[in-house]
Amino acid sequence: MLIHYIAIGKGSFGKVCIVQKKDTKKMYAMKYMNKLKCVERNEVRNVFKELQITQNLEHPFLVNFWYSFQDEEDMFMVVDLLLGGDLRYHLQQNVHFTESTVKHYVCEIALALHYLRNKRIIHRDIKPDNILLDEHGHAHLTDFNIAAIVKEDLKATSIAGTKPYMAPELFQSFEGTRPGYSFAVDWWSLGITAYELLRGQVRVSQPSDLRSVLAQEPIQNMVSHISYTVVMLYLFDNYSHRISSLSELQDLEYLSDVNWDAVLNKQIPPGFLPDRRRLNCDPTFELEEMILESKPLHKKKKRLAYNSLSETLTFSFLHNDLITHRSFVLFFFIKKIHYTEF
């Protein structure tokens, strides 16, 4: 059983709050998604896919998934609680990240991408909004809602992502050619994210817009030449020339001083420390939950009791083929994976 505390975030059809597990007293973040809205927005399959992907993942630089359950109204996912805020929030607070800090974030997310590649997973939505900081400032990748699993020697072809961060080969699907794409798209997105952290908020609608932005406001005027060069290595239109693996990144002279084992073990401080005296999120999330939400979480127990529904959350196993609009069968389990496969 979990105790609900405060809302700290929201997505297109879900919200996030802080919860505590009663028996261990450990704090978690809990994402809850309204079933009816998922059905209306045709997101049921994506929710199940995210559950299926994340239940088999555990890494120091991912937001790890631990439990899921349901009631009559909502589905719930319980994950690591990271109170440092996402990078988008800090950009909006006009935080100016140093080159060394951005370099460290790139190394941490690169290790996460290497782990995902070994699992044959393309994230497809890497951006500041999906990189959360823990209380010590380390970066963690989250949100596998549109991630894809690709089989050996095959490519993904569906269009997915957030336009300003999508690699050029993804846009070829819009043109009808559909040659497919693979893990290199995530490294393009990481390059755009690094550029944005160095430059401040820069929004472009597609890769061609980025060229005009770089021509007008080149970041080499604000950062070292070598840092600029590294960022540009991520942004080759031709993915065969782009940095697209951990080994290629590690071969760069710019990163020759990086102790990768120390980075993996979080022994090196990133340089930016989030304010521990605050939640590092938009305070309106809780106000919206309390005032504007028609079915707020804090009144769920009374509401379900009033409707003569069970107040006890039940758990069932997830069957891969059971994805229907009327039946949301979720699962509950405790991970026993250890950090041994990175």
Automatic annotation (TrEMBL):
One Pfam family per UniProt: Pkinase
Report a single Gene Ontology molecular function. ATP binding
* Domain named Protein kinase: residues: 2-255
Q: Which SMART domains match?
A: S_TKc
Gene Ontology terms: biological process:
G protein-coupled receptor signaling pathway; regulation of signal transduction
Q: Which residues make up the binding site for ATP?
A: 31
- The superkingdom listed in its UniProt entry is Eukaryota
Entry keywords, A to Z: ATP-binding, Kinase, Nucleotide-binding, Serine/threonine-protein kinase, Transferase
Return the PANTHER family for the record: G PROTEIN-COUPLED RECEPTOR KINASE/RIBOSOMAL PROTEIN S6 KINASE, SERINE_THREONINE-PROTEIN KINASE 32B ISOFORM X1
Provide the family line: Belongs to the protein kinase superfamily.
Kindly provide the name given to this protein in its UniProt entry.
Serine/threonine kinase 32A
Which organism encodes this protein?
A: Sinocyclocheilus rhinocerous
